[in-house]
Amino acid sequence: MLTMLRGNLHMTDVVLDSPSDVYQITTILRASSISCGETGTCWVALQRSGTIPDSVGIQFEAQLKFSVVEVDAASGELLGDEDGFQEEYPLEDVELNIDDFIEMV
To answer: Which of 18, 24, 26, 86 is the most buried (most CB within 10 A)?
Structure first.
């Protein structure tokens, strides 16, 4: 989660880069807008597209990408361009193991 204090975040999503083709991103649920002082959540759904040994984990580099729209924290009034400016924020790497998956029954 990320808390924004001086601007609103728009079209916020997490981008995952993997060194392998074993996983494919199937769905991204982005946070459309996160207001000053609030938290937001975005999700990335992955599907395993190949076979890997049960004991092997895969590590993804992760980045948070968003547009920042500057607003007055007290009034919420727009201070700059309504489209804002693009930003990227590096996140901790994400590691997936076989026990992170839901098995179809």
So the answer is: 18
